[in-house]
Design goal:
Distance between the termini: 18 Å
Strand order of the largest sheet: 1-10-9-6-5-2-4
Number of strands: 14
Bound molecules: pyridoxal-5'-phosphate
Strand content: 5-15%
Oligomer: single chain
Largest sheet: 7 strands, mixed
Radius of gyration: 20 Å
Number of helices: 14
Helix content: 40-55%
């Protein structure tokens, strides 16, 4: 799956940086990106790293949590989330979700909290604003447990006139190639708390930049991504892009990482070339998110016609619709050929409770239903 927000100027930037290797560790470019993101997002502090998962690690470091405790997290997520928690010495405890917005169900969260719960992760999935957003934050406040917002799908989504990620203690975003905006790989951690920001800064100062070989590969991946998935003539350009850049292809999550190992390249801060592409992408997010919303309105009509359960826009929210999720019959998720006649690439986020890994997660029956039945549709479409 690909979010298709890379354009010609992004590819030109990638090519420019492949030629200009002297400035790869120019921190001022990264500072500019972080400031621009913070301003656009309405956050006080922002820190860029090489992945949403790394940004989550930065949030965990900032919160200075006692190791050995538990983390209450959605039982419908990506494996890199529980991994980041385990790397920080915390045990993930899975909470069930609701089927309006696929966020944590606050009632189940209350049941799963124990005296050992050190942090709560709430998620805004598919770009929707979590149904129980306010209630989950209230649980955190009542019990004195910090809340991290997983905004990996929801960059730019708003609730009550403010972007998501600004109400919890801290939040993280992703610019991985399948997310709302695209630097190939990348993430951003934000907070409005000055004390947490000091520790977030410390995390990033200690982190190293990717080595030259990896930065080179990351830039080639931006080009691959553009020519294979976004270029207007991608049906042609993808062939020569594979010949030219294919040998440098990277995967976002390695098989070892899926098995719970921490790869050597984990934990890097973002180098100047990718920050520069991120800055360029930031200027486009609003335009693309408006396109996504228009497409979502069309998918609403389609879902009604098909008799499928639609996602819910909670009152006072403006979702971004990274994908348009619907609940159908399990056969619809098992055999995706129905999408051929629509001419779109259907998504299966999430195939398991901790996608894509078959980790046994008990006591999350509603999440199990989403695992069996939720398919999602792209929202960057031709002609919208
Ligand atoms: C993709 C994703 C992440 C991690 O983001 P990366 O940039 O890939 O590290 C975290 N949470 C959710 C829900 C995601 O889908």
């Amino acid at each position: 799956m690909n979010s298709r927000t890379l354009e010609r100027d992004d590819a030109q930037l990638a090519r420019h940086w492949l030629r200009d290797r002297q400035r790869w560790d120019d921190a001022s470019v990264v500072g500019e990106y972080q400031e621009a993101f913070a301003r656009w997002n309405g956050s006080k502090h922002a820190f860029a790293s090489m992945g949403g998962r790394v940004a989550l690690s930065a949030c965990l470091h900032a919160l200075d949590l006692e190791p050995g405790g538990e983390a209450a997290i959605p039982g419908y997520t990506c494996v890199v989330v529980p991994n980041a928690l385990r790397f920080a010495g915390l045990k993930p405890v899975y909470c069930d979700i609701e089927l309006d917005t696929y966020g944590v169900d606050v009632e189940d969260l209350r049941r799963k909290i124990t005296p050992r719960t050190r942090v709560i992760i709430l998620q805004h999935l598919y770009g929707l604003v979590s149904r129980d957003y306010e209630k989950i934050l209230a649980v955190g406040r009542e019990r004195g447990i910090p809340v991290i917002e997983d905004c990996a799908h929801a960059t730019g989504a708003e609730y009550d006139g403010r972007k998501v990620g600004n109400r919890g203690d801290c939040a993280f975003y992703s610019s991985e190639q399948s997310k709302v905006f695209n630097t190939g790989q990348g993430g951003m951690a934000v907070t409005n708390d000055d004390a947490l920001a000091v520790r977030m800064a410390e995390f990033h100062e200690r982190a190293s930049y990717p080595g030259a070989r990896r930065t080179d590969a990351l830039l080639h991946n931006v080009l691959l991504n553009y020519y294979e998935r976004s270029h207007p003539k991608r049906w042609v350009t993808r062939y020569w892009a594979r010949l030219r850049h294919g040998h440098k292809r990277l995967v976002s999550t390695t098989p070892e990482e899926e098995r719970g190992m921490r790869p050597d390249h984990y934990g890097h801060r973002m180098p100047a070339p990718l920050a520069s592409i991120g800055l360029n992408q930031l200027g486009k997010i609003d335009r693309f998110n408006n396109r996504r919303r228009t497409a979502a309105a069309a998918w609403d009509l389609w879902a009604d016609e098909q008799g499928l359960r639609k996602p819910v826009r909670i009152p006072d929210s403006t979702p971004v619709f990274l994908r348009y999720p619907v609940l159908g019959a399990p056969e619809m998720k098992r055999d995706l050929s129905w999408a051929d006649q629509l001419g779109v690439e259907p998504g299966v986020w999430f195939k398991t409770h901790v996608h894509p890994v078959q980790e046994p997660v008990s006591d999350c029956p509603t999440a199990g239903l989403a695992v069996d039945r939720c398919v999602n549709l792209p929202t960057i479409l031709e002609g919208f």
